[in-house]
Structures are given as structure tokens and as C-alpha cells.
């Protein structure tokens, strides 16, 4: 009884703790306030990066891991229908558009050197990765049209509308197989992974959408192609930035997009490194399950990311809403939260030293499963 009560209290606490999603966008005006108050504008332009990749990892380990999974029979149906959780994700669309144009205004008007400008672009790109892409990812997996459209528009706000098509129809079908460009191989560095991921995922989105349209008897070159709409919205935003601030405004939009979708691909690298679905006797791969993605159950980062780190459960059950995703002890576990792992992935020798033994241990006795680059 006490255990059930404790779980209920924890779920209630987490419900409102998801409001932490407003913190990353607020880091940008906080940075501006700091440099206007203290000085050192070029240094404080990097403040959001310091917070995300420095402060959050420390508190991840201080606060610890999430101890609860919602009860499938009692809590999951109720939580899944609560409008609060859905509204929170939908509100991220106007929130990100507002913070993006605010960041563009600061980029154009603040007295920053090129170093400070780079820091500011990386900062808004990181916010875009957390809000536009992460929340967009949550929404495109849901059936209601309003969530589908909000997810697509969020992704288009960082010029990655193709993710809406490729991720659902490509990545979730081929995850942890050699054909998936978003599944990193054992021994593959991040810098080997990224160029292939950028190109393949862009092209594959168009191929998948063309296939869908031809199957319905339509030409891929028509208004029915949803990618046309997503990229048109990206162009509209770029044109708006250009109208407001000239060619530097277009540069701002392109750069914040690049840093945002690059963060997405780094996360893809982290989430699937070295894991593979076994090939069956009939030549097909086993069904995606909780053992085909790295899991991380650190509470604080999961609250910031709407439980994206419970990625194993997401791949096994893609339509589960973020508030009811579960932790599985049998899933392969990352040694820290995503913020730490992103920094580690940027340093290949460190990444291999930490992660290769974990991959090898996971496939102990089945070393033939290790498919290196």
C-alpha cells in the first residue's frame, strides 16, 4: 500500500515537473540579462551550453534515477487521457517560434564578437534540439491531426521536416539494422556517422513519401507531398528572417537549424550505438524491442526531455505517450544522462573507452552480433 502511495505521489510530482520544459528557452534571456548586468557578453552567450552540458549532468547524478513506472491497469489509461500532458507539448510550438525570433533579434542587435555570435547560435540551436526536435518527435508519433501538424511545424522550424517522414516510416522500421542511417555501428565515430545520417535521412524521407504517393496513384511532385509543406514552412521562416534582418537573418535561421538538427543526430548516435537486431532464419530481423535502444533513467534530464531517455520502451511501443513510458532494467543502460553522453560522443577515444565494453558485455557469447563499420 505504501509503495503504491509513493508511486502516486511521484507521478503527481512529475506531472508538474514537466513544466521544466520552459527552462531551456528562458536560458536565452537569462544569458542576455547576465551580460548586460555583469558584462562579458561573448562569454555569457555560451551560458545555455554550460547549463545544459555542465549543470544538468551534475544534478542528474545528485538527484538520481526515476524510481517509478506507472501501473499498467490503473494509472496508464488515466494518464494517457489527461489533457494537461498533451497541452504542454502543443504549447511548445508557439513558445519555440517566439524564442527563435527573440534570439534572432538579439543576434542582430547585441554587440557580440564572432565568438559570441557562435556561442549564441549554438545556444539557440541547443534550445531548438530540446524544444523543436524533441517535442516534435513526441508529437509526430501520435494520431490526432493537431499533434501531427504541430510536430511537423516544430521540425520545420529547424529545417528538419523530413524527419517526420523518415523517422516514423524509416527509422522505426529499420532501427538497429545495417540499413538504418540513424543507428550507429560498433566502432563508428560520431564524425563518421554524421555525414551519412544527414544525407541518407534527407534522401530517404523523399523516397518514402514518393513511394506512399505512388501507391495511392498520385505523383510525388504534387501538393499531396507533405514534405513540400514542411520545407515550404522552413523557407517561409527563412524569408521572414531575411525580411527582418537581411542576409544575416537568413544566416541566423540556417545556423540555428543546423545546430538543432545536428544535436538530434548526435542523440541518435548515442541512443543506438552498437546495438543490433538479430537476423532470423527466414532472413528477416527480429521485431524492435526494449533491448535495441540504450536507456537512461536519470530523472532530471527525463523531465527536461519528456522522458525521451526511456528510449527502449519508446521503440518497443512507439505510440505510448511520454508520461507513461517505462524503465526496463533488462534494457542496455547508459552510464549517464543524454547531456553527458553528447559531450562524450564528441570525443571518440573517450566514447569508445566508456561504451565499447558495455556493448561487448551486452553481446557476450554472441560476439558475432557486433557489426562494426
Walk me through what this model shows.
With 373 residues, this protein is mainly α. The protein has one domain. The chain contains 17 helices and no strands. Helix 8 runs antiparallel to helix 9. The longest helix is centred in the middle third of the chain and has 27 residues. The protein is globular, with a radius of gyration of 21 Å. It starts with a helix and ends in an 11-residue tail after the last helix.
Question: What's the number of helices?
Answer: 17
Q: Could you say how many structural domains there are in total?
A: 1
* Mean pLDDT value: 93
Computed structural class: mainly alpha
What composes the largest sheet? none
Overall number of strands: 0
Beta percentage is under 5%
Task: Give the helices and strands as they follow along the chain.
Answer: HHHHHHHHHHHHHHHHH
The global form is globular
State the distance separating the first and last CA atoms. 51 Å
Protein name: Alkane 1-monooxygenase
Subcellular location: Cell inner membrane
Main location: membrane
Family: Belongs to the fatty acid desaturase type 1 family. AlkB subfamily.
Which secondary structure elements does this structure contain, and how are they paired or packed?
Elements: H1 2-17, H2 23-37, H3 41-44, H4 47-63, H5 75-81, H6 83-90, H7 92-109, H8 114-140, H9 145-156, H10 162-174, H11 190-215, H12 226-245, H13 247-272, H14 299-304, H15 311-316, H16 338-345, H17 348-362
Helix pairs in contact: 2-4, 2-7, 4-8, 4-16, 7-8, 7-9, 7-13, 8-9, 8-13, 9-12, 10-11, 11-13, 12-13, 13-16
Amino acid at each position: 500500500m505504501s509503495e503504491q502511495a509513493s508511486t502516486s505521489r511521484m507521478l503527481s510530482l512529475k506531472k508538474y515537473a514537466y513544466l521544466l520544459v520552459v527552462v531551456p528557452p528562458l536560458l536565452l534571456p537569462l544569458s542576455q540579462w547576465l551580460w548586460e548586468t555583469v558584462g562579458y557578453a561573448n562569454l555569457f552567450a555560451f551560458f545555455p551550453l554550460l547549463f545544459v552540458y555542465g549543470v544538468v549532468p551534475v544534478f542528474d547524478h545528485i538527484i538520481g534515477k526515476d524510481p517509478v513506472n506507472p501501473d499498467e491497469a490503473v494509472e496508464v489509461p488515466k494518464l494517457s487521457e489527461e489533457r494537461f500532458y498533451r497541452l504542454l507539448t502543443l504549447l511548445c510550438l508557439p513558445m519555440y517560434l517566439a524564442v527563435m525570433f527573440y534570439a534572432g533579434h538579439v543576434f542582430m542587435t547585441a554587440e557580440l564578437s564572432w565568438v559570441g555570435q557562435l556561442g549564441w547560435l549554438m545556444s539557440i540551436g541547443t534550445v531548438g534540439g530540446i524544444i523543436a526536435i524533441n517535442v516534435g518527435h513526441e508529437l509526430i508519433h501520435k494520431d490526432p491531426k493537431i499533434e501531427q501538424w504541430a510536430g511537423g511545424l516544430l521540425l520545420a522550424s529547424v529545417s528538419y521536416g523530413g524527419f517526420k517522414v523518415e523517422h516514423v516510416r524509416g527509422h522505426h522500421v529499420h532501427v538497429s539494422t545495417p540499413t538504418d542511417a540513424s543507428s550507429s555501428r560498433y566502432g563508428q565515430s560520431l564524425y563518421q556517422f554524421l555525414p551519412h545520417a544527414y544525407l541518407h535521412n534527407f534522401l530517404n524521407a523523399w523516397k518514402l513519401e514518393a513511394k506512399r504517393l505512388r501507391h495511392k496513384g498520385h505523383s510525388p511532385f504534387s501538393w499531396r507531398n507533405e514534405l513540400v509543406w514542411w520545407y515550404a514552412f522552413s523557407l517561409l521562416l527563412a524569408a521572414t528572417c531575411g525580411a527582418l534582418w537581411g542576409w544575416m537573418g537568413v544566416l541566423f535561421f540556417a545556423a540555428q537549424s543546423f545546430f538543432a538538427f545536428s544535436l538530434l543526430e548526435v542523440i541518435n548516435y548515442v541512443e543506438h550505438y552498437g546495438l543490433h537486431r538479430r537476423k532470423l532464419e527466414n532472413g528477416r530481423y527480429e521485431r524492435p524491442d526494449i533491448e535495441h535502444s540504450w536507456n537512461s533513467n536519470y530523472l532530471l534530464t527525463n523531465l527536461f526531455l519528456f522522458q525521451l531517455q526511456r528510449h527502449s520502451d519508446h521503440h518497443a511501443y512507439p505510440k505510448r505517450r511520454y508520461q507513461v513510458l517505462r524503465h526496463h532494467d533488462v534494457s542496455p543502460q547508459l552510464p549517464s544522462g543524454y547531456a553527458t553522453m553528447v559531450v562524450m560522443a564528441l570525443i571518440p577515444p573517450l566514447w569508445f573507452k566508456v561504451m565499447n565494453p558495455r556493448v561487448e558485455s551486452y553481446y557476450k557469447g554472441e560476439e558475432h552480433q557486433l557489426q562494426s563499420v
